[in-house]
Amino acid sequence: MDKPKISIAGCGYVGLVTASVLASRGFNVIATTIIEDHIDLINSGQAPFYEEGLDDVLKQVIKENKLMVTSDNQMAVLNTDITFISVGTPMREDNSIDLSFINTVSKEIGKALAKKKDFHLVVNRSTAVPGTTRNLIGKNLIQKSSKQLGKAIGLGMQPEFLREGSSVYDTFHPNRLIIGEFDKKSGDTLENMWRLFYEDRFPPIERMNIESAELVKYANNSFLCTKISFANEFANFAELIPNVDVNDVMKGIGLDERINPKFFRAGVGFGGSCFHKDLSAIKKWARNLGFNSKVLQAVLDLNENQAIHIVDVAEELIGNLINKKISILGLSFKPGTDDMREAPSIRVINELRKRNVTDIIGYDPKAKESAEEAIGDKIKYAKSIEEALKNSECTLLITDWDEFKELTPDDYKKHMKTPNLIDGRRIYDYDKFNKELNFRAMGRINLE
Ligand code: UDX
Predict the structure, then answer these.
(1) Rounded to whole angstroms, how far apart are CA atoms 41 and 33?
(2) What pTM was computed for the model?
(3) What is the predicted pLDDT for the residue at 50?
(4) Nearest C-alpha to atom 11 of ligand 1 is from which residue?
């Protein structure tokens, strides 16, 4: 069976990674972007952002002429069999979802389909509230092409679950494929395409209607965030109970097969481009339907609260923080990236500033520049761990970078004025650090 030709609208994390990975398995792919500066860059084999493993795959597929990038959506559609939509769905100021990119691109695709003879499948991969694929994309396709869905045009929705920093790996090794289909032909076409991609390593697949698939994405992220906020709530509770360690508690419950041990790491809360945006969008959308989600509200509130909590813990440890020099280790929302979107460090720094703490210095192995953009002059920026710790009176560890894990109690004692350390990500051996430093860790307290 011949591999279908693929076009992908959008060259962000999801679009470009999917395009490159498909091309590396012999699919001919045309990707499109509205960012003119990115076109030549990607066509020369360079990704416009850093993503582990992407550069190698991209260079190879550009060299082999398997992937090309253009701004011309219509040309891309006319020369391919399946089009994926992977454009951004940003959050508006009122927390609702901005569907303008999906709207524009689906009209372009519709115009191209007016000129096409053969069957063409359009698959939405952008996270969007239920109904968007059918009522916005589907409608635009019908209006602009003057054709019917189900006959000349197929329609599907396939949510993605890619983690930043692991998205190449995740595309090759997904836990499962979720396919939302307008009709059987659309679903079969999409499933067959992925069967040609995965061959004998085909992952579990679940086919359903389009709206259910759209909600799977939101429910998935909501559940992961619920696990994190649950762990954080128990961490805060555990800090009131002598000798209880929340890590052991989460390990204990994680061994129950009905629960599973992942995403139970307590700390300063979740960040990133998806979690906060998706939970806020679905909560807001539910509200418009007259549905008030108590769980989502609690999950988001608990997440905000972790930034306040770690500052409270610092005050418990050393008293008033005003006029003290505070160090922040880790600014990006997770290790392995310079992404500052919704980073917990921003919330912690805002909370410190709210309490009139002004002498703050931050250090991050990768995110100095993006942090300067996101946080501005609310803090100073160090170029090394040593510089960040120098003469500091309290260190808050916010991101679990490997290079922080290598630090010993002596490193803190050597550089800091007074070695007060709060481990916001539970990366240190509690007993060892507690013996040698004035130490606190999320979800653990020794009240002897
Ligand atoms: C996430 C989802 O994992 C992915 O499926 C979805 O498509 C996009 O959003 P990503 O934003 O890359 O991916 O980050 P992830 O690695 O999941 O971590 C998100 C945040 O949660 C980080 O700030 C991390 O520190 C935090 N986290 C994660 C915890 O605080 N505790 C945990 O146990 C796990």
Answers:
(1) 12
(2) 0.96
(3) 85
(4) 272
